[in-house]
Amino acid sequence: MSGAATVAVPGLPAVLRAEFGAWRRSTVSYLPLGGLAFALVSTAMFVSTGPGKTWEDVLGYQNLWAMFVGPMLTVLLAATATRIDTAARGGGTWYRPVKPRHRQFSRFTVLATRSLLLNLLGAGAPLLILGLASSAQRVPMGRAIEAVVVPWASQLGLLALMLWLARQIPWSAVLGVGLVWTLLSVVNAESSSWAVLPFTWLTRGALPVIGTHANGVALEAHAALAHASPWPSTLLGALLAVPFLLLSRLRLPSPAGAKHRASPQPGLLTPKEAGADGTFAYAQADAPRVLAAVAGVLRGTALIWLCPVTIGLIALWLSWHDPDTSIQLFTLLILPVGTLALSLIAWSAAGQGWRAIACRTTGTAKPALALTVIAAGIAAAMSVVIAFVYLVAGIPVGHAWPLALTGAVVAAMLTSFTLWLSIRVSQSAALVVGIIGILFGVLVGGTTMQRTMWLLIPYSWANYLDMHRMSLTLPLSVAATALFTVGIVRAARKAAEKS
């Protein structure tokens, strides 16, 4: 008696349990802590603005979370989950007898739960802390629940879209699409055509809840949006997830490196011509040139065009704008964003073969040190070149040399910090910390808050070009760079063990 063996196909409850178990201790589980970090910093900033605030002011202070930080962390959640899954080749689950829609819905459910926790910590924690601190700042329960649920439900469509896109395009491209989607949402949130613009559903519902325009200015009492219901756009934002959940037939990623031939690496034994007996004689290659090898790895990344394009765009901007009033564009935005991108790109390129590097005669210490020196050197060199561009554009020499010196030192510090965090924790954590740091760097460095809080936000240090503050920021940055370099060498050794 013979017959084909049948394999039981697990149902949706079993797939859900397995999916929740698979992500229990992953980076995805810890990403919601980025919401808590933002909440604590945001609360401290609110308190620093002085007493006399009401619960309406507390809600209005949630604008930055609802309009930008919350949506972008949701994008990061979807991109990170897919990236981990791709690196692990699905942990074998791609080839198991599971219905594609069950797999897709389970992944979405897990991430939607994490997104709810993210919003609960990012939007709910400040309301709780400030409400306990003062009865005048205690937001009514109904509005407090809406301040958490409305942004979360509105982000479900974005979550499903990013989850679907992450299977089709690279991680960095997903973040770029998410950024564009979020910015389009903010710009058009109050458009009269919002009902036919899907990206506006992401943020429009939150505006009547927090009582502000998309730009953070409080809604006027007579404004139509002040009396509008948040739920039509919120429900549309949630329903946007449905079509992307139905698109379950996604192409599987090809095995990493399948289309690339292995090439000889410095420091390896290289075969000579075969002898008469068919055996190979091996000779030791020249001593490995670690610095050149690491530079070669980075040469094939986006840095090769990103750096000159950045310089060109700044030069183009300065040809139309006053360079003296545009210095903050570099110190508070371009420099910290550039160091964040530089560090993430550097570790993305070097980290892929880090376990193989650990097996070579160089170990991990020299390559890690070389990676840090090159990345920090690129950041410092870019700062000096950009300061020269500002000098050519017309700023005085007395402003140019502090800009070059402070920019170079602070850029090296921020680069080494982000690189250390990427290696020690994860690139997702580094991205979350970087985004939050840049936002608060702009908020403090670009306003009168810098008078009292300038030393607390290193992301704004490049903006302080007076000798009094430079005498503190420069030594602290140098010391921090040295400390992070030591941390990178140690973290690189552990990264090789875990990879």
What count of helical segments does DSSP give? 20
Strand content: under 5%
Question: What order do the SSEs take from the amino end to the carboxyl end, as H and E?
Answer: HHHHHHHHHHHEEHHHHHHHHH
**Would you identify the regions where 5 or more consecutive residues have pLDDT less than 50?**
249-286
Kindly state the percentage of residues in helix: 55-70%
Q: Looking at the structure, what is the overall shape?
A: globular
> How far apart are the first and last residues' alpha carbons, in Å?
48 Å
Q: Give the rounded overall mean pLDDT.
A: 84
According to DSSP, the number of beta strands is 2
Largest sheet data: 2 strands, antiparallel
- Largest sheet strand order: 1-2
Helix/strand-derived category reads mainly alpha
Mind telling me the C-alpha Rg?
Answer: 25 Å
Structure description:
With 499 residues, the chain is mainly α. It has helices spanning 12-22, 27-30, 33-48, 55-60, 63-87, 100-133, 141-166, 171-188, 206-210, 231-239, 241-246, 290-299, 303-318, 327-350, 354-358, 365-393, 397-424, 427-445, 450-453, 467-498, and strands at residues 269-271, 282-284. It has a two-stranded antiparallel sheet. Helix 12 packs across helix 16 and helix 14 (327-350) runs antiparallel to helix 18 (427-445). The longest helix has 34 residues, at 100-133. The protein is globular and about 55 Å long.
